[in-house]
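As a warm-up, study this chain.
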Amino acid sequence: MKYIFSIFTFLWCTIPVLAQEESYILSKSGSVSVRPLYQSWSLQDQHKRITEVGTVFSLKYPASRMLNFSLQTAQATTYGDFKKVGGWSDVQLGAAAQIEQAHLSVSIGLNIPAGKTELTTEEFATAALVSNPVFDYRVPSWGQGFNINPGVAWVYEASRNVVVGVAGAYQYKGTYRPQKDFGEYNPGDEIVFTGGADFKINESSSVALDAVFTTYGTDQLDGADVFAPGAAVSINGQYKKFFKNDELRLYARFRSKGKGDFPTRVEPNRTEFHVSYLVAASRSFSLGLLATARFFEETDAGLSGAQLFGFQLSPTFQLSPSIRMPFRFRYDAGSTTFITPSNRFSEKIGGFEVSVGLMTEF
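Now compare it with the structure written out below.
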């Protein structure tokens, strides 16, 4: 059972208010972390910049070896050459439990509406830009409705070298008012099915493969259907190898998004490649290195066709047995296509992120 969660980090982290990392994965220790961050992207040909300054707060509490709870929220302000938007995000609560005898893991996530909604037209335009996955902001949105997201996974150790599993999750999405004088918006519910396998090559390396199928319900505005996104399929693969205390990971992902009921494709297909290496220099210091390549299909959306290459440095200092200080510096550069009613043009874009956190474990 030691490989149970190595292939399912995506299972139930489907609430897109915060960019979360393994929020519902069972942990042996609890932690409290605070992470201030600064992210800024430039549209170089238009000489425009959009910057986000914020802080992400998270808590993980292991009530027992088989039961974990989590909480996460953030405060962020976006400014620059676009309308300023700022405030708290929604609060996300999570619980995960393992039923070891049945090879099952169950979880539930709640999105508690506490963030900023009812934006002005100018604020909404800024928020739409920040939420675009091309920019990968750590706080991609502020407020939504009440969401509830139960999930279940079955994982079976078929042999000493092979672990297989299937999982399903459902997300109910509540109504909210994203803009002033806009009406009640009800995003469609989501259903996620997952299947995967983890193959142990030898004592130091393994390969994980999985597929994720997601169906999206119809979005409504004041009770009238406005958009049926259709379905999406993701294929993910990862190779992991240990070199004594160091770790190498190669990751690839392809996500195909259905056209929905629009006459032309709006949401793009995406392909991503990640190469990471963790250097465990000593008990008190480690350094993470990450290189990424991300490619977005060109569609008729206002911003599409992005091609981005990035590099990230993540040094972590172990200040004491229970206190860590992680840093992150990331830089991305590439191009995208902007589409207006009268024009289509290519735009060079670039962005960087600087963050420093403080985490205490208990």
